[in-house]
Amino acid sequence: MPLSKSVAVGVAGSNAVGLRLFTAVSSIWGIVFGLIGPFYAVYISRISGGLEKLGFAFSLMVLVQSAASYSIGRYSDKLGRKPFLFMTALADSSVLFAFTVITETYQIYILQAVLGITNAVGLTIKESMLADLTKREKRGTEIGKFNSVVSIFAAIGMAVGGLLAEFYGLKYVFYLGSAVILCSTSLLFFIREPAEEGK
C-alpha cells in the first residue's frame, strides 16, 4: 500500500474512533443536561425572586453567548478544539455545583454569564469537531446519527431527572450533574484531533 494511502487510512480510522469518543462524551453531557434541563428554570426562579429577574438572567446568558462565539471559533482554529472542551466541562461542572450554594440574584447573573461562554464553546466546538471528525461525503449521515444518539440520552436524562428530583430534591440533581461532567472529561484525552495526527 502506498505511504500516502496508508496514512490516509490511518487518519480515517483515528477519526472514526475520535467521533465515537466525542459521541460518548456528548451523550454523557446530554444525560446531565437532560437531568437538569426541565427543572433548571424552576430552581433558579426560586433564588431570583421574580420572573423579570429570571428573564434578565437568561437574556444575559444569550448575549454573552453571542459575543463569545466568534472569538471561540477563531481561537479554536489556532489552538485546537480539545482545550475549549476541557474548559467548558470544568466550568459547567463548577457552575452546576455553585447553583446549589448561591443565595443572591447577582450571583445568578454571574453564573448565567459564565454559562453564556460555555454555551458558546459547546455550540461552536461541537459543530467544528463534527466537521473535523467526519468525511465530507458522509458528513450529513454522521452528524444526523450523532444528534440522534445524543438526543436519546438527553431524553433518558430528563426522565431520570424527574425521579431523582422527586425522591432526593433538586440540589441532588445538580450535585450529580456536576460530578458526572467532571468525571467524563477523562474521555477527552483519548480524542485525537486531525491536527494531532502528524505528531
Write a structural description.
This protein is mainly alpha-helical. It has one domain (9-192): Growth Hormone, Chain: A (Up-down Bundle). The chain contains 6 helices and no strands. Helix 1 (3-48) runs antiparallel to helix 6 (170-184) and helix 2 (51-79) packs parallel to helix 4 (105-133). The longest helix is centred in the first third of the chain and has 46 residues, at 3-48.
Task: State the main characteristics.
single chain, 199 residues, mainly alpha, Growth Hormone, Chain: A, 6 helices, 83% helix
What are the SSEs and their pairings?
Elements: H1 3-48, H2 51-79, H3 82-98, H4 105-133, H5 139-168, H6 170-184
Helix pairs in contact: 1-4, 1-5, 1-6, 2-4, 3-4, 3-6, 5-6
In short:
By secondary structure, the protein is mainly alpha-helical.
- Please state the average pLDDT score: 84
Strand content: under 5%
pLDDT < 50 runs, ≥5 residues: 1-13
In total, the number of domains comes to: 1
Structural class: mainly alpha
Shape: globular
Number of strands: 0
Task: Name the CATH class.
Answer: Mainly Alpha
N-to-C SSE series?
HHHHHH
The N- to C-terminal Cα distance equals 22 Å
Looking at this structure, what is the CATH superfamily? Answer: MFS general substrate transporter like domains
Q: Which architecture does the CATH hierarchy give at level 2? A: Up-down Bundle
CATH topological fold name = Growth Hormone, Chain: A
Which sheet architecture does the biggest sheet show? none
Total number of helices: 6
Helix % is over 70%
